[in-house]
């Protein structure tokens, strides 16, 4: 029986473990996770911090790992490639043990850049955002009511998402000529305040996240039922669904209503048509 040892219990490590288990159900698969949150979606941290996903456990992509031994709080510290062994430190008490493998996969993610020569990174109130533990520290600060303002260093995707989260995921509104277009980035349902505002604002176009076909229990992203509830609550003339999961894409867009589309590049042309139709009927 092949022994596969995977260092890292997040997206890369777990997807590798699931794939190997599917291809070789007899393989003995162990996953080491330095933290205790296997397969949590750190992509969802901004939504946890905005309050839209209030329970961080909902960030887990899955909680059952059939045929895979998940070892949480197990940090690999030394690899011995010649003897095919890894030294592992277990739990807070730091008990060390050695694990053997036939194949080893390293999937321990990236380390955020801590700019050299930038004093103050360790001061109270200064946070990195990468791990669940990082997000708990920010969450604690926010819930203590200590934060009156925030400065985000890093203005790419995660920085912008966090800016949105700290404003409690308020919608981005824009006016394109005489139409009103709302882009909502929230992950699950609406916050009631936002729903009321959107109803009053009467958007012509709406873009919102909808990742899945109807699920029994949607976890970290809206499914079709939740998205439809949002659309019915507003309701706009036309809706584009973004962040659509690949299973849905492959299913041929089944079950969508005429005025609801999966967002694609050619929507630029469709939006132009929407504006022209509106002008013609005005
Ligand atoms: C706030 C935020 C928002 C994001 N949003 C998006 C998004 O919207 N879309 C997108 O595509 N991507 C997004 N990303 C990026 C995405 O989350 C990462 O690309 C993805 O998590 C990488 O997965 P990974 O498994 O390689 O590493 P990680 O998710 O970093 O996981 C590393 C794993 O290795 C473990 N580990 C580390 N060291 C050891 C060790 N020595 N021994 C054992 N285990 C160890 C950790 O405990 C963890 O389980 C976002 C990231 C952040 C931080």
Automatic annotation (TrEMBL):
Limits of the FAD/NAD(P)-binding domain: 3-169
EC number: 1.11.1.1
UniProt keyword Protease present: no
GO molecular function: NADH peroxidase activity
Cited InterPro entries: FAD-bd_OxRdtase (IPR050260), FAD/NAD-bd_sf (IPR036188), FAD/NAD-binding_dom (IPR023753)
Protein's UniProt name: NADH peroxidase
TM regions (residue ranges): none
Keywords: FAD, Flavoprotein, Oxidoreductase, Peroxidase, Redox-active center
Organism: mine drainage metagenome
Cofactor requirements of the protein: FAD
UniProt xrefs under Pfam families: Pyr_redox_2 (PF07992)
Enzyme class, spelled out: oxidoreductase
């Amino acid at each position: 029986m092949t022994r596969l040892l995977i260092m890292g219990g997040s997206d890369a490590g777990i997807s590798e473990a699931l794939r190997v288990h599917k291809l070789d159900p007899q393989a003995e698969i162990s996953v080491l996770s330095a933290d205790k949150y296997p397969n949590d979606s750190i992509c969802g941290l901004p939504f946890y911090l905005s309050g839209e996903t209030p329970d961080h456990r909902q960030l887990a992509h899955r909680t059952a790992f059939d045929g895979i031994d998940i070892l949480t709080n197990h940090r690999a510290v030394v690899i011995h490639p010649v003897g095919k062994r890894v030294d592992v430190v277990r739990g807070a008490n730091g008990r060390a043990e050695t694990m053997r493998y036939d194949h080893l996969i390293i999937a321990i993610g990236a380390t955020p850049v801590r700019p050299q020569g930038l004093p103050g990174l360790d001061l109270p109130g200064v946070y990195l955002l990468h791990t669940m533990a990082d997000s708990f520290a920010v969450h604690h600060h926010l819930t203590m009511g200590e934060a009156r303002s925030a400065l985000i260093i890093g203005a790419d995707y995660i920085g912008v998402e966090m800016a949105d989260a700290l404003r409690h995921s308020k919608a981005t509104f824009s006016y394109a000529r005489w139409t009103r277009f709302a882009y909502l980035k929230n992950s699950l349902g609406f916050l009631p305040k936002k729903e009321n505002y959107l109803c009053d604002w009467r958007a012509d176009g709406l873009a919102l996240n909808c990742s899945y076909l109807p699920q029994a229990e949607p976890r970290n992203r809206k499914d079709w039922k939740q998205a439809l509830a949002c659309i019915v609550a507003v309701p706009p003339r036309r809706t584009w669904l973004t962040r659509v999961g690949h299973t849905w894409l492959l299913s041929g867009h089944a079950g969508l209503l005429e005025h609801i589309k999966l967002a694609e590049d050619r929507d630029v042309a469709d939006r132009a048509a929407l504006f022209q139709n509106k002008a013609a009927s005005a």
